[in-house]
Amino acid sequence: MTTLQPLAAAVTSEPAAAHAATGITAYAWLLVALPALGAAVLLLGGRRTDKWGPLFAVAMSWSAFVVGFIVWIAMLGRDGESRAMHLDLYNWVPAGSFQLNAGMLVDQLSVTFVLLITFVGSLIHVYSLGYMEHDPDKRRFFAYLNLFVAAMLLLVLADSYLLLYVGWEGVGLASYLLIGFWNYNPAYATAANKAFVVNRVGDFGLSVAIMIMFAAFGTVTFAGVQEASGGAGSGVLTAIGLMLLLGACGKSAQFPLQSWLGDAMAGPTPVSALIHAATMVTAGVYLIVRSNFIFEGAPNAQLVVVIVGAITLLFGAIVGCAKDDIKKALAASTMSQIGYMMLAAGLGPVGYAFAIFHLVTHGFFKAGMFLGAGSVMHGMNDQVDMRRFGGLSGAMKITWATFGLGWLAILGVPPFSGFWSKDKIIEAAFIGEGWRPWVFGGAALIGAGITAFYMSRLFFMTFHGKKRWTDDVHPHESPLLMTVPMMVLAVGSALLGLVLSIGGTFSSWLEPVVGGHAEGEHPVLPVPVLITLTLLLVAGGVALAWLRYWRDSVPETAPTGSLLTRAARRDLYQDDVNEAVFMRPGIHLTRALVFADNRGIDGGVGGLAALIGGTSSRLRKLQNGFARSYALTMLAGVVAILGAVWVIQ
Amino acid sequence: MTAALPAALPAAFKAADFDYGAIAPMLIVAGGAVIGVLFEAFLPRRLRHTAQTALSLVTLVAAFVVLVTVSAQESHRGFTLARAVAIDGPALFLQGTILAMSILGILTMAEKFGGKGADAFTPMGAAIPGSAHEAAALRAGLSTSDVFPLALFSVLGMMLFPAANDLLIMFVALEVLSLPLYLMSGLARRRRLLSQEASLKYFLLGAFSSAFFLFGAALLYGYAGSIYLPDIAAAVTTANGQLEGLLIPGVVLVLVGLLFKVGAVPFHSWTPDVYQGAPTPVTGFMAACTKVAAFGAILRFVYVGAEANRWDWRLGVIAVAVLTMVVGAILSVTQTDVKRLLAYSSIAHAGFILVAVMSFDRTGVAGTMFYLAAYGFTTIAAFAVVSMVRQGGSEASHLSQWAGLGRTHPVVAGVFSFLLLAFAGIPLTSGFAAKYAAFAPAISFGGRAGVWMVVIGVIASVVTAFVYVRLIVLMYFTDPPVGEPVVAEVASPFTTAAITVGALVTLVLGVLPAQVLDLAEQSSQFIAK
To answer: Transmembrane stretches, by residue range (chain A) (predicted)?
Structure first.
C-alpha cells in the first residue's frame, strides 16, 4: 500500500484529454436535472398532477433530448481531440485526504448514449401516452419513466465510478418499480423481486470493484483510475475487471445472471422496450467499454468477458427458439444480442466501437419490435401467446411493416442496420491467433443463424400463416400516438447502420475514447467469405422457419417437443439450477436461523425482558408514596455509602 | 485545632472585591425578580399576567445578552465577592445554559390555552382544594402570576449554584433555587391534592437533604478550617494525616445533598411524585434547569474541592451512578403515567451524566456540560408537548390516553417521537452526541471502573430505548381509546416557540454538535487558585 500512496496523490489531477466544459456543455447537468424534475413533480404532486402530469413528463424527456442534441452539435463543432469535456459540479465526498467531486464527463461515448437514451426514451414516452391511456395510475408510470431517464443519463454522464454507481442503482430502482408496476398481480410482484435480487448480486460486484479501486489507487474517478491502472499489477486489474464484469452481467442479463430478464417482461411493454431492450440492459456493455483501460491490462478478465458474451449469445438464441410468449421471445433475443456486444467488448480495441455501434442499432430495432409487440397485444386483448396469433399482417399493416423492418435489421440482411453492426462483430471475433477466433467466431456465426431462425419464427407466427385467434378478439391497428414512434424507430432500424458506417464514421467518432482499430489485423478467414457464410446461415434459418411456421400449420397448444425444446422453454433450467443451488439451501438456512432466533435469541431476549419487567414491578413497590419511607431510603443510602467508603479505606 | 488552619486566612480585614461585570447577569435576574414582586403588589390584576411574562422574558434575555458579553472578556474571569463566587468557563457555560432554558420554561408557564390566566396554575394557591373559596377564585378569573417572580428567584439560585466557590454560598444558592420550586410544585390547577402532596414531599425531603449538606459542610470546615473549596483542596494535599476522619464523611455528606437535587438513586424517591404532581411547565423547568445547576455544583465541588482524595470516596459515587442508571431504566419499564415515565427517564439520565463526571478529566467536564445542555432543551420541549395533550380539558397523562395520537395529531406525535428518540440516544439527535460526549471521557480516563460504568450505561440505554419506542408504537400503531377524544390543544405562539426551539436544538446538536462541543471544551477549565 505504501508504495501506492504517491501514485494516488499524483492522479487526482484532471486528465489531459478532457477540457473544462464551456458554452452549452456547461449546462449538461440539465440532462439529468430535467427528467429528475419531472419525476419529482409527478411523485410529490400526487393526484393533483394526474391531468397534465404525463404530458409534463413527455415534455421533460424531449427537453433532455434537445439539450443533448445541442451538446452533440457543439461537440461536432470541435475537432476530434478536444471534443471530450469535463464538467465539475460540486465537491461531493470531502473526506479528509479523499476528495471526490461530482462531475460529468461529456465525451463521444457518453453523448452517443445520451442521444440514444433521450431519443428512444422520448419516443417511448409518446408511445406510452397511447399505450397507458386507460391506466388509472399512468401518472405514477410516467414519473417512474422520467426517473429512469434521469438515472440512466446520470449513469452514462458520471465522471467517476461512484457517481456511475448512483445512476446504476437508480436505473435498478426504476426497473424494479416498473416491472412491478402492476403489482396487484402477485406473479408480477415476484418478477420485480427476482429482478431486484439478481441485480443485487451484480451490484455487489460493482461495489466491490469500486472498493478495490479505492484501496489500490485511492481514487475512483475514470481519469484517476485510468492513470493509475497504467502502473498497476495485472492481479489487481484482473480482480477489478472480473468484479466489473459481475456487475455488468447482473445489469445486462448475461450468463450466469440472466434469469431475471424473461420475467421482467411482466412490466408494461413500453418499459420492456425502453429499459429491458434499448437502454438499461446495455449499461453493462457501457461499463466494460468505459473501463477499457482496466481490461487492457487484464487479458484474463478480457477473455472471461468474451466467454460470457459467447455463452450468452448462444444461450439466448436457443431459449428464443422455444418461447411462445412474444415478449419472452424478444427478451431472449435481447439477451443474445447483448451477448454479441459483450463478446465485441471483450475483444479489445478491435471490438469496442462495434460493441457500441451494435448497441445503438439494436436500441432502435429492438425497441421498435417491442413497441410492435405492444401494438399487437393492444389489438389482441393483451394476449402474448404467439400460437394464438397468425395472419395479423392484414389487420395491422403499420405494425407489420415496422416490425418487418426491425426483423430484417436483426437478421443482418443488407442494407438494414443490423448488417453493418453485427457483421462487423462476427468479423472482429474471427481476428486473433490459435483456437480463439475459431471458437468465438464460430459461436458468433452460428448465433447469427439461430437468430435468423427464431426471429423469423416469431415474425411468421405472429403476422403470417393461418389465423389462430381466440373467438373474442378483433385485431385493429393502434392509434397514431403509438404507431408514429414505431415508424420513427423503423426508419432508424432500416437506415441508421448504413448512415453511420459510411466511411467508418462511427468508429472514427468513438476512436478518441476507446482507441483505434490497429491496421494489419485481419480475420482468419477472408471478409467476403465470412459475409457470404453469415448470409447463407441467415437464409437457412429463415427458410427453416418459413417451412415450419408459415407453410405448415402451427398447433394452437404447444406440442411436447424434443428434450432440447423443453429445456429451452424452461430457460435451459437456469431457474431450476438457481433454485437447487441457492434458493433451497438458502431457505433451509433461513429456517434454521429463524428457529435459532425464536428459541435462542428471542427466548433470551424475552426472558430478559420478563426479568426486567418483574424486577421493575417489585422495585415499584418501594415507591409507596410515603415521605417517611423515602426519607428512610435516603438515610439507608447515606449509611450504606459511608459504610462502604469506610470499609474500603 | 489551630495547627491545621492553613495560611489562607486573610492577613487583615479588607473590603470585599466586587466585579460587578462578572456578576451582572445574576444581579439583573435578582432585580427582575424584585420588580416582579412589586408588580404583584401594585399592578391591577388584569395586567399582571402580561406584565409578569414580559418582565420575566426581558430580564432573562437581558441577563443572557450581558452574560454573553461578559464571557467574551477575559478580565471578568476569576474570583469575586471575596472569593465566594468563581466566574470561570464552566460557571459561564452553565449560567448561559440555565438562562436559555429558563426563557423556554417561562414561555411554557405563560401558556393560557385561551383562559384568563396561566393555564397550568391554580387561580388561588392558598385555597383549600375543592372549597367554595377556590370555586369563587375560579369564577373571578384570578390567576397565579406570582409564579414568574418565583421562577426568577429560582433562576438566580441556579445561576449562583455552579459558581459558588465556598460551601456556605453553595448552600444559600441551593436554598434560593429550591424554595421557590417547592412552592411552584404545589400550584397545579388540576389534581390539586396531588400537587400539594408533591410540594410537601419535595419540601420535607429537600430539607432532609439540606441537613446532610450542612452537616458535611461543617465536617469539612472542621477538617480544613475553611469553607472555600480551593482551601479544602489545599488542605487535602498538604494533609498530615490528622482529622482524616472528618474529611471523607464530609465529602460524602455534601455530595449526598447535591445528588439529591439531581435525583440520583437512592436519593431519587421524590422525583416521580414531584414530577407528576407539579404543574407540567414547572416540571419541565425544574427537570432541565435544576439538573444543570446541581450538576454544575457537583462538578465544582468534585473537581475543585475534593479531587485530590478522590480515590477514597469515588467508589461510593460510582455505586450511586450505577444504581441510578439501573434503577431509573428498570423502573421506567412499568410506568403508566407519561410524566412519571419522564421522571424515571430523568433519573436514568442523571446516572449517565454521573458517568461523565466520574472520569476526572477536562473532557469529562465538557461532556457533562454538553449532556446537560442537550438533555435540558429536549426535556423542556417534551414536557411542553405533554401539557398540550388533553382529554376533557385536563392533561391526558395516562399512557393509555396517548394511544393513536399519531393518527389524530401527526405533527404533535411526530415531534414527541423525535424527542423520545433523543432521550433514547438515537443518532442524528442531540441524545446521541451527548451520550458519546459523556461516555468517551469515561472510557479514556475513567479506568476500569469507567469502562464498566459505560457498559452498564449502554445496557441501561437499551432498556430505556425500549420504553420510548413502546410509547412511539403506542402513539402510531394502537387504536385511540374510546370515549371522549384525546386532543392536542392548539398552543399559543409561546408554547409553540418553546417546543420548536427545543426540538430544533435537539436536531442541531445531533447533526452538527461540533460547535457547542468546542464551546464546552473551551469552557471546561475550573479556576482553583
So the answer is: 28-45, 52-75, 109-129, 141-158, 164-184, 204-225, 231-250, 271-289, 301-322, 329-347, 353-377, 398-418, 438-460, 480-504, 524-547, 630-648
